[in-house]
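Hi all, a correction to my earlier message: I attached the wrong file for LysR family transcriptional regulator. Here's the right sequence:
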Amino acid sequence: MLDWDDLRFFLAVARLGSLSGAAKQLHVAQSTVGRRLGSLEESLGVRLLNRTPDGYLPTMAGDQVR
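and the right structure:
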């Protein structure tokens, strides 16, 4: 089941490009951001962000969610 609150974690990572940046903005631990992002991707059945040397970048599906 989709937890709509997970969307704010995805959006923070997509905007800031890192789990640590999103964690600081959301006042949570970096592991929480990763876990919530994973939960959202699992519930949707699609990868939303790709990890690159330059940070996290949205996939095509991630662009549609954004």
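Sorry for the mix-up. The chain has a mean pLDDT of 94.
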